[in-house]
Write a structure and sequence with these properties.
Layout lengths: L2 E4 L9 E5 L5 E6 H5 L5 H4 E6 L7 E6 L5 E6 L24 E6 L5 E5 L8 E3 L5 E9 L2 E10 L5 E6 L4 E7 L2 E6 L4 E6 L4 H4 L4 E2 L3 E7 L6 E8 L3 E6 L7 E7 L3 E7 L5 E7 L4 E7 L4 E8 L9 E3 L4 E6 L4 E6 L4 E6 L8 E4 L1
Antiparallel strand pairs: 1-4, 2-3, 2-29, 3-4, 5-6, 6-7, 7-8, 9-10, 10-11, 11-12, 13-14, 14-15, 15-16, 17-18, 18-19, 19-20, 21-22, 22-23, 23-24, 25-26, 26-27, 27-28
């Protein structure tokens, strides 16, 4: 069961942003156009809220299906039940046990399925027709996750689960090719989602001491990016022309803790969130030469697990658990606003369709 709180709005937004509000135990369904037009508060931009009060410790990450009809949600602690919690205002002992993968119907707020993955899930990808999902099962709160789950989004069955390596956190998809990080060994692996994953799984490519967010470069160049949170912090550019043998092109260091990355203004750009100690810097990099093109510094402290960027509007959306706000950064004018979101740690992640 679930409660859907309708705000009285009629008709769903043309473009939907969903935030995973973690310790508030809810999803916020937001009208992207209202954010773009200058909404100053969560309430001004909100379409509706999906309350998930019985699922501790709350929604850590969320991925909308391509048609935005369903939200796939990881209920999980991630690495915020331990020392990492200090980055987001979750003190020792404040993160309850629990974890599951939920599939939620966006228009009704109904929980369609609760799926028990081998370890608590974290990052999620959904295939192009919305029929299947893959999760990186980091575990956390005492669980040492090392698995990936393959889930059927039609009948909500677990298709398969496999050991992938220590501490998998995030995945990305390009067509049938997937990339997954394993933070425990600072590596990434590639696999084909249409083949036997174990048969197509590449050897681990070590890039740092703490690999994090991953993405494919969307310019036809057969490159991928791994964001590194440490050892050294920054990002690594990979050649994935041979998915069975990914190769390191270069590693670009940054000052601070980097975690989330998405495509920037151009297809060969990276937008990175970096916690510098006193602020979060949203940085645009040229992936061809590693040059920092532009950055917007936002005076908030926290660790976003995800980012969204709209190139047409030159607008970045960054959830900041810790400051418990959503940052809207406008690269067309180099300015930002900070929207207070909640009292408890979150939002941690978001999905824009």
């Amino acid at each position: 069961g679930s409660d859907s709180t309708d705000t009285g709005e009629t008709g769903r937004p043309t473009r939907l942003l969903v935030t995973a509000d973690w310790r508030a135990k809810r999803l916020s369904l937001v009208d992207y156009e209202l954010l773009r037009e200058g909404a100053q508060t969560r309430e001004q931009a909100l379409w509706r809220t999906i309350e998930l009060p019985q699922w501790e410790p709350g929604p850590l990450e969320v991925e909308l299906t391509p048609d935005a009809s369903k939200a796939v949600v990881s209920i999980a602690p991630g690495f915020f039940a331990g020392a990492g919690g200090s980055l987001v205002g979750a003190g020792p002992g404040t993160v309850p046990e629990g974890g599951a993968l939920l599939v939620v119907e966006v228009d009704t707020g109904m929980v369609l399925a609760e799926i028990a993955t081998a370890h608590y899930p974290m990052g999620i990808v959904v295939n192009a027709d919305g029929s299947e999902a893959w999760t990186a099962n980091y575990g956390g709160n005492g669980q040492s996750g090392m698995t990936m789950s393959h889930v059927d989004l039609v009948d909500y069955s677990l298709i398969e689960e496999l050991e992938i390596g220590p501490g998998p956190e995030q995945l990305a998809l390009r067509g049938d090719l997937a990339i997954i990080n394993t933070a425990g060994d600072g590596s990434v692996r590639l696999f084909d989602i249409t083949a036997d994953p174990l048969a197509s799984l590449s050897p681990a490519l070590a890039v740092s001491s703490d690999s994090s967010g991953v993405l494919f470069v969307d310019d036809g160049s057969d490159r991928a990016v791994v964001v590194n949170s440490g050892g050294p912090p920054g990002y690594s550019l990979l050649d994935v022309a041979d998915p069975g043998a990914p190769a390191l092109i270069e590693t670009v260091p940054v000052a601070g803790v980097a975690y989330a990355g998405v495509r920037g203004q151009q297809a060969d750009e990276l937008l990175l969130s970096v916690l510098t100690g006193t602020a979060i810097a949203l940085q645009r990099y040229d992936l061809n030469d590693g040059a920092l093109i532009e950055q917007i510094e936002v005076p908030v402290i926290g660790l976003p697990l995800g980012l969204a960027y709209d190139a047409d509007d030159q607008l970045a959306l960054c959830p900041v658990p810790g400051h418990n706000a959503l940052v809207v950064a406008d690269f067309s004018i180099g300015d930002h606003r900070i929207i207070d979101w909640q009292d408890l740690p979150g939002p941690t992640h978001l999905s824009l369709r």
